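Illustration: Alpha-L-rhamnosidase six-hairpin glycosidase domain-containing protein.
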Amino acid sequence: MPRPSRLLGATPVAIATGTILILSTGSAAQAVRGPGRSPAASPTTSPSQPTPRSYGPADALHVTVAGDGSSGYHAEIHDGARLITTRGMTGKYDLTAVPGTSLNQPTGDDLLGHPAGDLDWSGPGSGGGAVTKAAAPDGESAVHWTLPGAENNTWIEVPIADAKVGTTYRGTVTLQGTGTVYLNIYDGTRDVGGTPVTLTPQPQTLTLDVPIPEHSRTPQFQIRTSAAGDVDLLAWKTSVRAVTRQPVTDANRLANRYTAVSYDPATATLTLSGATDAIGSTTVTRSETYRFVAPNVIDAQVRTATSGGPVVYWYTPYTDFKIGRPLWTGGETTSYESPNPSNALLDSPVPALGVSDGTYTYGVAGAATWDEPLPGYSAPHLVIDGSRLAAPQIGTEADPIVLGDGQARSFHSVFYRSAAGPYGLALGAQLATAETLGLSTPDRSMPAWGKASSAATLRRAAADEFAAIAKITAYWARMTTASGVKALAPNQKYAHFGATTYMRDSFWTTLGLDGTPYAKDTEKELLAQFTRAIPRSGGESGHVPVTGGGPFFGDESGLYYLIRMYHDATTWGLPVKDTATANLVLAYIRAHQVSGGAFVTAAPVDNAGFQITPDSWLDGYLFPTGAVNAYNQGLYVVALRAAKSLGADVSDAEIDAATGVYRRLYDDHLGYVRWLSTKDFKSPDVLVGDALSLYLFGRPLLTDTMVRRTFAAQERTPYGMKVLAKEDGSAVPPSEFLTLTNDPKTGKVIGLGEPVGWYQNGASWLLWEYLAEYSAARHGVSAARGAMRDSIAAEVAVTPLSKEFKVTQQNPDIAGADPAWPYPLGSSGLDRQGFGWNAAVAAFSR
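Result:
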């Protein structure tokens, strides 16, 4: 990892109650040593030093510590001699803390009216099971719920009488036993869920605060499952009480007056510490660290700890930039907020804000991940308010952070310098964060993105560093939701409004994390979620859902499940080999999705009153029933071989039969593999099975001729291959698609045909294009490697971001389907950028 080339500093000096280590003034330039290369120098003390001292590279981004031990030290970030930003709020306070575990405190009567065992429980929500009165271990009245083989999202409930509109209520319940469940309150219009817990013989108390909106139905107090499996639980100490807000006074508002400063040259880390305040009986302490990662990158951390009792708190950590105009990924602005409930199309695809002075961009990036989840919305809350920027907003009064007695929480953000403008802001955020986390390309200096550079230079840098961009995109997609569930969302926009893990997307996204510290942990958690969600009995037994909580479609999710179980066990060495579940999934596929060795398209299903056929990733197309899609068929062959390698009951004859169906989709007259057995359409996704077989097993599924001719036949545009086209290269009629979206005026679900050149009807999708090029390269097509580089260059030509798709045609009809239109050809709306599944490109680039 690159290190600063020059440090500022003097001799170690004691300041007030803390110690500061400063390298000698006027000394020769010294390189910052990486962690572990040598021990830190031992601090010494001397008289108080009131003048500011600086740390980090003198001619690039570095930190100056101003103030003193009595009034408090604070950090300023400079670029050479130029002041860039001061840390903290532009007003007087940085942090607001209130004693207890919530801003709301329960008052008044229990609206449930009776002990748990005497309540009129109904359910389970999916039928079956038993709900009986029982006694808790302490003798209190309890309810006993048993349901063997319960499905995910099964519940028992009791009505909440006399709930008043506009009042916030706190529900509580104590549980023990077997099952993975959560406390849920239906507020009369929607379900509000708490954090799932896995029950044990040890009692656990769950709480949930819910405001009651205008509603037409009676609110319900529910205990719900969050995973399939046996339920055998006791519930007692149930209550629903109104809550009142604790007032926020001046005593609750804290300023970070640090009393100690230290510097560790071994890790190139500056620390400000010793800010201590009493909040009631609780002591709250804070610290800040600044690690100098590269000449234009500073890794900053804010840490808060408590002792003597819990608190809830939130930061308003506005970063007061002193130069330039506020900037987000969409351009210059003085007013911006993300998540933006009123217009999600404006949500930033990268969690970064900054300022641009026409020569450079100075930015700050921060993401909520598994490691550092933020409250409320899963993803960071970015704010530009005039000249004030917050990235990220760490909690709000509506969604504060809960910190228990003796606990500590930390949040990282990355300060960086990059080229001017929104392209430089986005590129800098990704590469600086990748450098900070060790996800950048080893031994690459990446000089261009930290300098004033031409647009062409920046585009080349983005293309060269797309593997790093892919990895950090996948890292940012790792979310802990507001209810505590870990998910891997397709992109930041998905995470803003309830992160969801899709089987298809998460498979490709986690591949891109291969070789990073985050790969195995991510994949182990995600596969376990899907394993728990697979029904073990009934007509849906062995059916893998599209997401962990459903729905269940006749798509390729089961194929991906088998493939990733094999990959996880053999490539990453995870203890996931589960032959019993593999056989269960395979049995469902054979019984419901396969005929004569062919993986066939399913019948239409009802979704929001529309008949759709979500058979593959290309789920907007209206597939006929009983056809064979080449993308699915190739995956089916790979899944069979993966299952056989896991020890499942798969014969060579079964694999050969499926391979034969895949090969027979090659039409010698057309000169390519048909996308669908009943059509003459062509698509690069027909080579996905062959590419994946080569990647996982080192063996092709198609012949050199089939791949060479199919690759040559694809319809190319200046923006990438068309993902779907007719034999002559023209577009598929829009009427053959049905895309479901929300009417922006009424909010109702409406069905649309897909305009030509947009989304799945002839737009360009990098992942499928790149896998087709990978397949062709492995089959000896000499032009394929160059085509892979060209595909990446096209992906970053307009923005340096991974995109869901790139529009390939200037079509005014797109306005009727995409509220973000117009945007440049070769790009998409911001809400469809920063997509994780293109991270797989990093794995297939090696």
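Reading the tokens back as a structure: DSSP finds 15 helices and 46 strands in the chain.
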